[in-house]
Fold:
Amino acid sequence: MEQTIQAAAERDTYIVRCGEVALKGMNKPYFERMLVERIRRSLKKHGSGIEVRRDEGLIFVRTPKGLSQGEIIRDITRVFGVASISPAVEIDIEEGSAQQIMERIGQAAAAYMDRLIAERGIKTFKVEAKRANKQFPIQSPEIGRIIGAKILVGCKVLSVDVHEPDCRLFVSVRRTRAYVFEQKVSGFGGLPLGSNGKGMVLLSGGIDSPVAAFLMAKRGMMIEAIHFHSYPYTSERAWEKVQELSAIVADYCGRFTVHSVNLLPIQEAIVAHCPEEEITILVRRFMMRIAERVAEQTGCLMLITGENIGQVASQTAEALVVTDASVQMPVMRPLIAMEKVDIMDLAKEIGTYETSILPYEDCCTVFLPRHPATKPKLAKILESESLLPVEELIAAALSEKTSTVIFPKQQ
Ligand code: ATP
Ligand code: MG
Structure:
């Protein structure tokens, strides 16, 4: 036992809560295993000696001391499926009487509070105890009272405040270990990556599509992306911006491939042969078709866009219907009913916003009609398309496609 306590003192422990994964019924072990694997991968860069284990509905991460707690917490909270995480002090309770165990927990709790007094000058506290192990002979409220009393004895400057304490100290008594912790840092929730197939994101350099990619990945979907440019009308810098955005997205969903396709010949053909007000919708239909082809080749089950109903001319209900009619694959639009401010807030939270607003031209703005059709009719659009060698244009665009693997920014 001596050895275990020593080992516990030499490492940092984190309690990870699993959010929706915990509701998965029969499939719960499958999702939990996946989540454990994702957490392991997210911590790989911190070196060896990191342990990630499931135990009765929670995941425990143990790392050698000396690693940055802030970085570990950041990396774990970015793993989809993680509801929250708490750095905790771990106390071995496999041996000893209930009294002795309470004494050990009390000592650890007092030492923990001493640190908070030194670091933050806290003056008041409240203990909230939970006995997950119902075999333990002391009930939760009593555990709270006993540990509270021990803290008062050990830390003379502290007093109890049950309403607005400076520190809410949680004590959790489990089967073989007890835990003392304070904060819960929220994760994004969602489901572990890889639990929901793969989707092809149409990724522009704008604000919306990276957020759309993030939201689908958060539901467990692996992503791959396609970007359209109109080089030389769009610049090399615009492409760099897309790669930069992708790297930020990859911080959450792991490395992925971005396919890049030049749309210029298609845009020129449309401008030359079709009515000006239809340019936008026609271009969008080509984008969708090309994205669908690449999605099929790469095992993606659906397309994902950052469209949002009513936001711009190409995103009216009628335009969305006509856009959808160009492909067979389901098109996911996770932002469809969100408010722009909320999309912007989310972009800021995940860190894509600042890059998205850099002022580089997008292929859609290269041939912008003065008065785009806001209520396109499919029959009319099909008529215009019949003036174009659709298949040839698509094949030519695909033959020039390049593919780039994007690695996470924070390796
Ligand atoms: P975003 O901020 O994502 O660019 P937006 O509000 O500017 O969106 P549009 O430019 O009309 O809207 O694009 C709608 C959606 O079409 C985008 O969210 C994206 O999924 C896709 N899209 C637009 N331009 C491109 C592009 N150049 N390459 C790939 N996909 C694109
Ligand atoms: Mg855009």
The CA atoms of residues 216 and 341 lie 19 Å apart.
